[in-house]
Write a structure and sequence with these properties.
With 419 residues, this protein is an alpha/beta fold. Helix content is 46%, strand content 12%. The longest helix is centred in the middle third of the chain and has 32 residues. The N and C termini lie far apart (50 Å). The N terminus is likely disordered.
């Protein structure tokens, strides 16, 4: 198995929100390592090789342009990248299943399985395969089984868990200054050698005391648990916001009061429309499914309530808009400031704005949407999804505006909403 000194080439399968920024930072901090990000999508790879990157993160553009063509490459030649690498990051999508067993809660691992089979069919030398995607507990075992069952004679693999803890909008800072780096692997001699090899990469910029090593299953579960705890805090303060509105209390004052308790702390205690993005809901649902499959129904119900509170908050917000506008929004113009799931990102996955739009469209409202980081085509895609999924037909006018006409949008709208 590869040793620390032999990591000269890294391959990353998946040029998305995790793979792109992660490899950009590795290339920046490890100039002696050649980092190649590969993807089946030629369109996405072309975007990474252009002046308009497929994702927006503060500072990412400058880093990519600095290292691209030197020791950072984006390519569709997956075979070449796998053959040359000693270490392979797997950063593919693991969405919630929309079909079959576990529909609506279990993780869909078909892309992870496909990546593993691809590696096994191509690799001719020993490889360290690193899970960066968020996966269910013991997914690494399945990956190793696939690699072992399909490998070429004499080729050996070590599978590590190295979950990402990136917050969109601050991903570059999170990568440069992580709270911790988790690396899980087999507790064997070969497993420890693989863990040390990955540690040696991170040690270029991360203090050794911040790199935590453990067994594979603990690492996989730690990622799910971290996101579930953060989502829980958001649902908790949002539940308090409902009580505050009913009693006359100020939720910001309540949040400040409890956040001053050193045992609790102030983070993730701002009342909002709820959590969105690609991670929180997916990971909590994954935990719900895992608990159910382990015959722990009470645990599953506990975490399911976090999701239900999140949905309740969005519905409650729309109900307040309707109530404020004399119990009807039909043919009324409503401006939505923000379509991404949070500021400083263009990611619209699981955005609360989409849910709000859906409810308002069903009520016959006319929606004006403004977001400086989200492309018009992306908004139109979600709007069309709302229509087709609900089979609703309402005469709605959409205005997609730029910063220069923002005052006009605000003036024309009857009810501007900051999302």
């Amino acid at each position: 198995m590869s040793s620390e000194s032999s990591i000269t080439h890294i391959c990353c399968i998946g040029a998305g929100y995790v793979g792109g920024p992660t490899c950009a930072i590795i290339a920046l901090k490890c100039p002696e390592i050649t980092v190649t990000v590969v993807d089946l999508s030629a369109e996405r790879i072309n975007q990474w090789n252009s002046d308009n990157l497929p994702i927006f993160e503060l500072g990412l553009d400058e880093i990519v342009k600095q290292r691209r063509g030197r020791n950072l490459f984006f390519s569709t030649d997956i075979k070449k990248a796998i053959l040359e690498s000693q270490l392979i990051f797997v950063c593919v999508n693991t969405p919630t299943k929309t079909y079959g067993i576990g529909k609506g809660s279990a993780a869909d691992l078909r892309y992870l399985e496909s990546a593993a089979r691809m590696i096994a069919s191509i690799a001719e030398t020993n490889k360290i395969v690193v899970e960066k995607s968020t996966v269910p507990v013991r997914a690494a075992e399945s990956v190793l089984d696939i690699l072992s069952a399909n490998h070429r004679s004499g080729v050996r693999y070590q599978v590590l868990s190295n979950p990402e803890f990136l917050a969109e909008g601050t991903a570059i800072n999170d990568l440069l200054n992580p709270d911790r780096v988790l690396i899980g692997g087999e507790q064997t001699e070969a497993g420890h050698a693989a863990i040390n090899a990955l540690c040696s990469v991170y040690e270029h910029w991360v203090p050794r005391e911040k790199i935590i090593t453990m067994n594979t299953w603990s690492s996989e579960l730690s990622k799910l648990a971290a996101n579930a705890f953060l989502a829980q805090r958001i649902s908790s303060i949002n539940s308090m916001s409902a009580i505050c509105e009913a009693t006359g209390a100020d939720v910001s004052e309540v949040s400040n009061a409890i956040g001053r308790d050193s045992r609790i702390g102030p983070k993730f205690l701002t009342a909002s429309l709820g959590f969105g993005g690609s991670c929180f809901q997916k990971d909590v649902l994954n935990l719900v499914y895992l608990s159910g499959s382990l015959n722990l129904p009470e645990v599953a119900a506990y975490w399911q309530q976090v999701i239900e509170m999140n949905e309740f908050q969005k519905r409650r917000f729309v109900n307040r808009i309707i109530s404020t506008l004399f119990n009807t929004v039909t043919n009324k113009k409503i401006a939505l400031f923000g379509f991404a799931f949070k500021k400083d990102t263009g990611d619209t996955r699981e955005s609360a704005s989409i849910t709000v739009c859906k409810y308002l469209l069903e009520e016959g409202a006319k929606i004006s949407i403004y977001d400086p980081q989200v492309k018009v085509d992306q908004i139109l895609l979600w709007v069309s999804f709302i229509y087709f999924s609900k089979l609703i037909y309402v005469h709605t006018v959409f205005f997609f505006v730029q910063c220069s006409v923002l005052p006009k949008l605000c003036h024309a709208a009857k009810a501007p909403s900051m999302l």
